[in-house]
Design brief:
It is built from twelve helices and three strands. With 272 residues, it is mainly α. Strands 1-3-2 form a three-stranded mixed β-sheet. Helix 8 crosses helix 9, helix 9 runs antiparallel to helix 10 and helix 11 packs antiparallel against helix 12. The longest helix is centred in the N-terminal third of the chain and has 28 residues. It is elongated and about 70 Å long.
C-alpha cells in the first residue's frame, strides 16, 4: 500500500515536471517579451552602444567609454549577477578598431591565426578580466556577450558556456525590438552566426528547466542546481550525457539527447 502511494506520488511529480517543461517548450516556439522595468532607458543605452563618433582620438575614446558604460548598466540591471560582480567594470571593456583589436588578440593568444583574428568579433581574457570588442558599427550584441563573460561565475563546459552567453546576449540585445547589423556608414550588413548550435542547446535547456535555473548556473556557479533540474525533467543521467557531448564540442549530439530524453519522458507519462 505504501509502495503504491509512493509510486503515485512519483508519477504526480513526473507529470507536474513534464507539464511545466511542456509549457516552457511551447514558450520556446513563441518567445515571450521580457518586461523590462524601464524600456525607454534601455533604448537609450542601446542607441549609445550603436553610436560611433568619427573624429579625433579624444572623441572616439569618449564614444567608446559611453558604449562600455551602457553595456555595463544593461547587464548589471537586467541580470541577477552576484554581489561581488556588481562592481563597475566599464573600464575593463575595450572597443578597438580592427588593427588594434587584431594586435591585442595576437598578443594575448599568440597562436591565433590570421583567419581566426579576422572572424573574431570579441573576446574575454579571464586572467585579468579584460574584454575586447572589434568596434565595427553595431556592436551591441558582442559588447553584451563579452560583458556577460565578465559577470559570469559559470563552471560549465566551454562550448556550453559560450552558447549560454550568446543565448542570453541575443535575448538582451533584441529585447526592445529586432536589431539590424549596421556598418559604420549606416548600411545594413549580414554577419555570421556565432555559437548558433551551442545557443540552440541552451534554448532547449531553457524550455526544459526555465530561465532562473540557467541564471543560477551561469551567474552563481550552481551547476548542481542545473543538474538536479535537468535530471528531474529528463531522467537520471541526462545532465551527464549532455555535458559530455558539450565537452566533445558536439552540440548536435547534445540536442539529440535532450530531444530523445524528452520523448521518453512523454512516453513514460502516457504509459501510466
Amino acid at each position: 500500500m505504501l509502495g503504491d502511494k509512493a509510486a503515485a506520488k512519483d508519477h504526480q511529480q513526473t507529470e507536474k515536471t513534464a507539464e511545466n517543461a511542456q509549457q516552457r517548450m511551447e514558450g520556446e516556439r513563441q518567445p515571450e517579451k521580457i518586461p523590462y522595468r524601464d524600456v525607454p532607458a534601455h533604448r537609450v543605452l542601446e542607441e549609445q552602444c550603436k553610436t560611433k563618433i568619427h573624429g579625433d582620438a579624444a572623441e572616439n575614446r569618449l564614444a567608446e567609454r559611453q558604449k562600455a558604460a551602457a553595456a555595463e548598466k544593461m547587464v548589471v540591471r537586467d541580470f541577477p549577477v552576484s554581489p561581488d560582480k556588481k562592481r563597475d567594470q566599464s573600464d575593463d571593456l575595450h572597443m578597438l578598431d580592427k588593427d588594434a583589436f587584431g594586435d591585442e588578440l595576437k598578443k594575448r593568444n599568440p597562436e591565433s591565426t590570421k583567419d581566426e583574428i579576422e572572424r573574431t568579433a570579441g573576446f574575454y581574457d579571464s586572467r585579468d578580466q579584460q574584454a575586447f570588442v572589434k568596434d565595427a558599427g553595431n556592436t551591441l550584441n558582442t559588447s553584451i556577450h563579452e560583458k556577460l563573460h565578465q559577470k559570469s561565475e559559470s563552471r560549465l563546459p566551454t562550448s556550453l558556456n559560450e552558447g549560454m552567453t550568446e543565448y542570453l546576449s541575443k535575448d538582451e540585445a533584441g529585447a526592445v525590438g529586432q536589431l539590424r547589423d549596421i556598418d559604420s556608414r549606416g548600411r545594413e550588413t549580414k554577419k555570421p552566426e556565432y555559437y548558433r548550435e551551442e545557443a540552440a542547446v541552451v534554448a532547449q535547456l531553457d524550455a526544459v528547466v526555465g530561465r532562473n535555473t540557467l541564471h543560477e548556473a551561469y551567474f552563481h556557479g550552481r551547476d548542481d542546481v542545473l543538474k538536479d533540474r535537468v535530471d528531474e525533467a529528463l531522467g537520471q543521467g541526462a545532465f551527464a550525457e549532455i555535458m559530455q557531448a558539450m565537452k566533445e564540442e558536439n552540440a548536435g549530439k547534445a540536442r539529440d539527447i535532450i530531444h530523445s530524453r524528452w520523448q521518453e519522458t512523454l512516453k513514460k507519462i502516457g504509459g501510466h
